[in-house]
């Protein structure tokens, strides 16, 4: 995949600052829907530090790493983690990412911690004009540490209510199963989560994809669809057997395939996958900044553009902002615009794609589309 040509950390930071400095009022102002962000991936060094101080938990970058004693040590450790072509290869980077990502969970202990985690995202989102979002969380990473369902779900539910009331940000949660754990653990967690279904709109699949194809989890996804949940799964970029995983996600799992695919960028290399995704009208959540770390600048834009031009409802999202140069949905939209030479009309279409492929109520979707239309009208009044 040309890791040797991917942008190093310093250039990615420069690119981020340059994109923001442009002051693109249209991209900032357009009402946004975010469909792919891991709440635990928004745990910045600062938030981790705050929660660690409150709970008295230990701060480490990896399970067997040394204890970090200050916020500055944590910031340095997180900086060092970010992939740089001069430092590590793809697989090693992914391993390090997951190690650090799961170690980050340690600071989440109480209902207040889960509330604060979600509110921290919502406050950031409101500033970027995010009006609706569907947020991933990984319950298995919390129950395995002894955290109870009420602790997680009541914290998330209260944050959701407060964000809607105070910030005008609506939301729903997507419970992801960790694909490197067993299908029976996924089923057990699915059943345990049913009392909280008012707070959970959909079911996802994330974590390390190597040798963990979508069909392995067919039983629990089939049951979840029957129970009325929406379905999505990660098909990470450049994963082993990625085309087959995308095919299963798009057309096999739970009878005829899922409602959305997370990432799936490699579909751009296979016309039969593109045709199938178009035919089934499966939305794809694209997170450009995360691909920039492994892909060359030159090859990334054309792949995203190909999916967009084929008529697939791609949306632009952030994934794990705390681990990605602090790039949130705004920076990802600015990056997509530059990479693909999108104009403001395209940006509006991407925003509408996100509304259409979201799982919001029809009335909420209509309102969001009207809001997007109003902002377009303000920037480009009809003569
Ligand atoms: N869980 C959190 N972030 C993830 C990512 N980028 N890929 C797969 N699983 C994840
Ligand atoms: Zn993701």
Describe the protein:
- The protein has a single domain (about 10-40, about 110-380), classed as TIM Barrel, CATH 3.20.20.140.
- Helix content is about 50%, strand content about 10%.
- It contains 17 helices and eight strands.
- It has helices spanning about 10-20, 25-30, 45-55, 70-80, 90-105, 110-125, 140-145, 150-165, 185-195, 220-225, 240-250, 270-280, 290, 295-310, 330-340, 345-355, 360-380, and strands spanning about 30-35, 130-135, 170-180, 200-205, 230-235, 260-265, 285, 315.
- It has an eight-stranded parallel beta sheet with strand order 1-2-3-4-5-6-7-8, sandwiched between helices.
- α6 runs parallel beside α8 (about 150-165) and α11 runs parallel beside α12 (about 270-280).
- It is globular, with a radius of gyration of 20 Å.
- The protein starts with 8 loop residues before the first helix and ends with a helix.
- The structure holds adenine (ADE) and zinc ion (ZN).
- Adenine binds near residues 234 and 236.
- Zinc ion binds near residues 36, 38 and 262.
Primary descriptors:
single chain; 383 residues; alpha/beta; TIM Barrel; 8-stranded parallel sheet; 17 helices; 8 strands; 51% helix; globular; binds adenine; binds zinc ion
Put the structure in a nutshell.
This protein has helices at 9-21, 25-29, 45-55, 71-81, 90-104, 111-127, 140-143, 149-167, 183-193, 218-226, 242-251, 271-280, 288-292, 297-309, 329-340, 344-357, 362-379, and strands spanning 32-34, 130-137, 170-178, 200-206, 230-235, 260-263, 283-286, 314-316. With 383 residues, it is an alpha/beta fold. Helix 6 runs parallel beside helix 8 (149-167), helix 14 (297-309) packs across helix 15 (329-340) and helix 16 packs antiparallel against helix 17.
